[in-house]
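Field log, afternoon session.

UNIT: design team B
ACTIVITY: writing a sequence onto a fixed backbone
BACKBONE:
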């Protein structure tokens, strides 16, 4: 039973590995994979995590700071006995502990400004991620469509090569029968050889474009990587019927480039407000609890000294009378228990602290001015971003419009070349034209088919660029 289960598992694993090797990727799968695994996108996601941590730091500024400390130390040498007051060589041990809490009551509203700035920074990081996703999507789509163009171009070359092969066989028969000169056969053979060479080049182009796409997706298995060979229809040009001014205005409202520049300006403005907060006084409150314990002995009994009951401590200057004091004898006992000492020796302190800035070497004033300059810089960058976006939208609109017109013209040209090729074939078959004229007509027809494919995918890609500018989310792009 175990052998059967192991065999089933091995067969299943082999099936999964084979299926993975034979997997062909769709464009949507490539885009989704890139959005999940691209290094630049992962770095942008890390920026969002960092901005969230900065936001938490700003929230933490509203909370009190609580810190505890404890110390246990030993001191060996000639020191004063704190119990008897006598200098003696001894080893003492002392323990102390405390808890301190502080709360910022007012700091020129900088805590609120810091929180607002952190929220804006988090929003800016999100916009940067969106822009990165747009860029990666277009990059992957362009690489994918290039592979698809190369594949379909290869099919066109193979199809035309089959036609040439049939024509070559027929020409050989006609030459052998004496109906056509041998020069026509040589021309067809040259055309056939040239087409085989172009097929080899087309296969290499497919391989190179597949490797380029795989590298974009960070897929290392180049040998087994392939895409789904499907055709993509040319969508209608409804977006091109929209006035370009409307596309520009929509782009200014939707595009991440403008939002990033706007948030950068808001961040610069918040920095000015934060710098101005240093002009205001700060008010804080604190509370401290502390206690201590010692391993020194304690006085447990004090009694008169029977052998030397008094000692002279001075005299009265006016009368000369001697001033004496009673001598006592102290009995040193063991120290109190640890926790009992902590309870007896504890204490608290609390209060408020006010700091008023008076003069700080113009550093606050200079920092405010410096941040005001950054605000102007951010405003210029926002204005430049709008100008750049407007230029890019106009360029994308003209490119898409031109690509659509080029595609329509290529269709017309391909249809005309197809009819011309059919006519040239008929003339060649009845001997009214030579092989050179036939080959030239066929070459023009092949080139027109390749041009249709090129302009088709060029238009599809440029239309996707224009859709992004028009505010279509990257996840909603349809190919």
């Amino acid at each position: 039973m175990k052998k059967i289960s192991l065999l089933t598992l091995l067969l299943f694993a082999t099936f999964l590995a084979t299926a993975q090797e034979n997997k062909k990727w769709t464009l949507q799968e490539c885009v989704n994979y890139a959005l999940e695994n691209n290094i630049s996108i992962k770095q942008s996601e890390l920026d969002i995590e960092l901005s969230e941590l900065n936001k938490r730091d700003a929230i933490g500024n509203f909370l009190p700071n609580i810190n505890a400390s404890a110390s246990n130390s030993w001191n060996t040498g000639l020191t004063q006995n704190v119990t008897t007051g006598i200098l003696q060589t001894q080893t003492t041990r002392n323990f102390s502990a405390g808890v301190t809490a502080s709360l910022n009551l007012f700091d020129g509203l900088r805590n609120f400004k810091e929180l607002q700035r952190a929220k804006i920074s988090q929003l800016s990081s999100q916009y940067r991620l969106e822009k990165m996703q747009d860029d990666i999507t277009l990059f992957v789509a362009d690489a994918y469509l290039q592979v698809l163009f190369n594949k379909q171009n290869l099919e066109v070359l193979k199809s035309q090569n089959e036609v040439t092969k049939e024509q070559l066989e027929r020409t050989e028969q006609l030459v052998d029968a004496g109906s056509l000169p041998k020069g026509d056969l040589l021309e067809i053979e040259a055309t056939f050889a040239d087409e085989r060479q172009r097929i080899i080049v087309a296969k290499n182009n497919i391989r190179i474009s597949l490797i380029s796409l795989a590298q974009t997706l960070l897929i290392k298995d180049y040998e087994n990587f392939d895409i789904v060979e499907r055709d993509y229809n040319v969508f209608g040009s409804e977006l091109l019927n929209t006035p370009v001014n409307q596309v520009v205005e929509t782009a200014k409202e939707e595009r991440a480039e403008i939002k990033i520049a706007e948030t950068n300006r808001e961040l610069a403005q918040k920095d000015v407000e934060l710098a101005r907060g240093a002009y205001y006084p700060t008010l804080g409150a604190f509370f401290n609890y502390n206690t201590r314990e010692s391993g020194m002995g304690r006085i447990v009994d004090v009694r008169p000294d029977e052998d030397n009951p008094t000692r002279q401590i001075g005299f009265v200057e006016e009368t000369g009378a001697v001033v004496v004091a009673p001598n006592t004898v102290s009995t040193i006992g063991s120290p109190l228990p640890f926790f009992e000492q902590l309870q007896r020796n504890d204490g608290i302190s609390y209060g408020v602290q006010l700091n008023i800035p008076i003069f700080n070497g113009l550093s606050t004033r200079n920092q405010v001015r410096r941040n005001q300059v950054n605000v102007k810089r951010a405003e210029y960058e926002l204005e430049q971003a709008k100008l750049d976006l407007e230029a890019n939208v106009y360029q994308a609109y003209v490119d898409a419009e031109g690509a659509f017109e080029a595609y329509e013209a290529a269709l017309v040209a391909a249809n005309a070349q197809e009819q011309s090729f059919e006519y040239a074939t008929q003339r060649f078959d009845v001997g009214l034209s030579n092989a050179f004229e036939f080959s030239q007509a066929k070459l023009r027809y092949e080139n027109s088919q390749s041009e249709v494919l090129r302009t088709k995918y060029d238009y599809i890609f440029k239309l996707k660029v224009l859709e992004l500018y028009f505010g279509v989310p990257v996840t909603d792009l349809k190919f």
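LOG NOTE: The CA atoms of residues 150 and 206 lie 5 Å apart.
NEXT ACTIVITY: expression trials, pending approval
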